[in-house]
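dude i think i finally got it to work??
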Amino acid sequence: MATIVSNPLDFNVRDLYVDLAEITGRRLLLKCEGFNFAGSIKLKAAMEIVESMERTSRLAPGQTIVESSSGNMGIALSMAAAYKGYHFVCVTDVRCTKGAEKAMAALGAEVHIVRTADSVRGFLGARLDQVSDLCRDNDDYVWLNQYSNPSNWEAHYRTTGPQIAKAIPDLQVLFVGAGTTGTLMGCARYFRAERPSVKIVAVDTVGSVTFGTPAAPRLIPGLGTSVVPGIFDESFVDDVIHVREARSIEMCRSLASHGFLFGGSTGTVVRGAIDWLEASQFDASVISAAIAPDMGWNYTDTIYDDEWRDSSFPAEAEAAYANTCSEEHAKAHDEPGIYAGR
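look at this
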């Protein structure tokens, strides 16, 4: 039976998993969330946030949606706005890939690029300040605020969590990347309520402040934050592992060498999952899964570009960076990810 849609928001592949055993040596099942018209898991949150605000009359025809995004949420909201007839303004920063920027523009969005980070709150803080200024100066602008809007995590409580539970009934460990923490909080809350035996491990990037670790420059959009999201509640997370960006890139390229072109967040999550499993008490028979937020097409000019990689992560700079990591992060593998277990 053919799948026929007239609404681009209606199509999303929900049950595709990649068994990474042959690549990683661990039977890690990777839930692929990039097969929809927006190209990422962010379509779920975008739909939930917009439609919940419509239902409660916080968003009405003729208004302009504004949101801060590093890329994928911006694309998803651009698509939703185009279909529903809203104007959309995305405030991003210089780390946003050219592919994502062009995709948003192609869908009719107005893209503002922040080029100077806030001295304390980083690029995200600077983006949020610009969003605040836009809303103050324009009465018809509505900020969706994915960082504090509960609809962000509710989307995954309703969809992603139950989908994983149904597909893998004997799941023991679930690895989820931490960005806005919408996916993490939705899945963690779902499994806490419905199957508390499943261990939830958050995967974050070194330089992110979400779990109270020191801020540092980050180049790959997606995971990590310089301002702790309002929806984040650490009590729902069983453990966390931090991964250096250079290791994320290595993992992305390893997956690509086997024919799987994933985005930077996926490389981080897979690297973190493998490192955590190797450091844990679980043997190779553990049943684990991880969430792949998007595919790699928008990263061909960064993660998969040799010149960008070599200039951004020269070996001597990576070694120097590792030496500056706090003692809290010092429990590192010989080829780390950085394990920051509880």
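The two ends are 49 Å apart (CA to CA).
im so relieved honestly
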